[in-house]
Design goal:
Order of helices and strands of chain B: HEEEEEEEE
Structural class of chain B: mainly beta
Strand content of chain A: under 5%
Shape of chain A: globular
Radius of gyration of chain B: 20 Å
Distance between the termini of chain B: 73 Å
Number of helices of chain A: 9
Largest interface: A-B, 47 and 34 residues
Number of domains of chain B: 1
CATH class of chain B: Mainly Beta
Oligomer: heterodimer
Radius of gyration of chain A: 20 Å
Strand content of chain B: 35-45%
Helix content of chain A: over 70%
Structural class of chain A: mainly alpha
Strand order of the largest sheet of chain B: 1-3-6-5
Shape of chain B: elongated
Largest sheet of chain B: 4 strands, antiparallel
Largest sheet of chain A: none
Chain lengths: ~290, ~120
């Protein structure tokens, strides 16, 4: 099966934008009740609106490219109408577009809880598309939880970098930064556990065993696992060695080191999202 | 944390006891079979897939040896089967069936096979 690069890129930007909006909105909730921490939405309005627009446009491009790829009916509009209103895929697509429109409105409101709720709805609805969507209730549920957890982690890394930058420049008290980082780390532990569990369960459900190097799907899945392990390792270094030093008088080195590890985590996270953008399109059993 | 661990353990158990989904739909069997030589024109072409397919997004066409398409109308799709009656009998020759489908999880799959009518 040929992979449409337009669909791959659309899916990558769609996952990236919704993840950053979701993960960043959660940081306002992590900061709640911590001293003088800023509990407003952590992304500037323009940047957030750009991401929400990117998510919506990417989804529309993805839908258009998918419609063209089918290309056996009487024209683009007729095919699109059949997908949306004459197939079992329609409900998932209509919900996805509806939640993305809500996300755009939530972003304009700059209310973190609204952004988090709308982004959660977008991500959770991912469960009803892709591999495993036809596997009763289990496949969609595992996929939905996996997508939400991945976004909380990968998207949260953007806000995490902003916390570190604010602590380095002195615009945020370092004890406040330490408290926020501590909360993110504790949530991160739960997220890593859920990602590992749902990921393993989905792999078993989709390929019926361990991923094999003999298939393209297996190679991409193993690459994703390796990137996940690298991210978890970097997060553990932050949690165990660097976060405890943030509030100390000599935290400059720790903050510099955290900036570097978070950048590496972000790069690995982006690679995971690209991997997923391809993985969801290929046949798990094709050699 | 205890609840998360319990939920994770339950999810793993449920997945590992469930049978694997086929993920991408495959052609299980067809009438006529791939490469089959028939003594007479088939009355229909029937394809059976590994899982149900989207009825309105799946189709097939039959082309002759010179690549000319036969006017056979739209196939009927029910569950995992796609069939089309051949109202006009096929002349002797080699025919190719091109099919494509969209599975219930949104993946487009296509394939082709040939058969021969020898009279």
């Amino acid at each position: 099966m040929d992979i449409d690069p337009v669909i791959v890129l659309a899916r990558f930007f769609y996952y990236g934008a919704t993840s950053v909006l979701f993960g960043s909105s959660l940081f306002s909730l992590y900061a709640a009740g911590i001293g003088q921490a800023d509990t407003r939405f952590w992304l500037p309005r323009d940047a957030a609106a750009t991401l929400a627009t990117m998510a919506l446009l990417s989804a529309l491009i993805w839908l258009a490219a998918f419609t063209i790829s089918i290309g056996n009916l009487d024209g683009f509009i007729a095919t699109l109408q059949t997908i949306l209103f004459g197939s079992s895929l329609g409900t998932a697509w209509i919900l996805r577009l509806f939640f993305l429109a809500l996300l755009f409105l939530a972003v304009l409101s700059q209310h973190p809880l609204l952004v988090a709720t709308a982004a959660f709805a977008v991500l959770f609805s991912e469960g009803w598309s892709g591999h495993g969507a036809s596997a009763g209730w289990l496949g969609p549920t595992l996929h939905a939880v996996h997508a939400v957890c991945a976004a909380a982690w990968v998207g949260g890394l953007v806000a995490l970098a902003r916390v570190i930058a604010a602590a380095r420049t002195g615009t945020m008290e370092r004890r406040v930064a330490e408290a926020i980082l501590g909360r993110f780390s504790r949530i991160g532990l739960v997220v890593v556990l859920l990602l590992a569990t749902t990921g393993s369960a989905m792999a078993w459900l989709i390929i019926g065993g361990m991923p094999q190097l003999s298939t393209g799907y297996g190679r991409l899945l193993l690459l994703k696992v390796a990137l996940f392990a690298a991210m978890a390792g970097l997060a553990a270094i932050n949690r165990l060695f660097l976060v405890p030093k943030v509030a100390s008088h000599h935290s400059g080195g720790a903050l510099n080191a955290m900036s570097a590890t978070i950048l590496l985590e972000q790069l690995a996270g982006a690679a995971v999202l690209f991997d997923v953008a391809v993985l969801g399109l290929i046949d798990p059993h094709a050699r | 944390m205890r609840y998360v661990t319990t939920a994770a353990a339950l999810a793993l158990c449920a997945a590992f006891t469930a049978s694997a989904v086929s993920a991408h739909t495959t052609l299980v069997t067809s009438i006529p079979k791939e490469g089959e030589t028939l003594n007479a024109s088939p009355l229909e072409i029937r394809l059976t897939f590994s899982e149900p397919i989207e009825p309105l997004l799946s189709a097939m066409e039959v082309v002759g040896a010179k690549g000319e398409g036969l006017d056979i109308g739209k196939p009927m799709v029910q569950g995992a089967e796609m069939a089309i009656p051949l109202e006009g009998l096929l002349d002797a020759g080699i025919y190719k069936v091109n099919w494509h489908l969209v599975s219930m999880d949104g993946h487009r799959v296509e394939g082709a096979f040939a058969f021969e009518v020898a009279r």
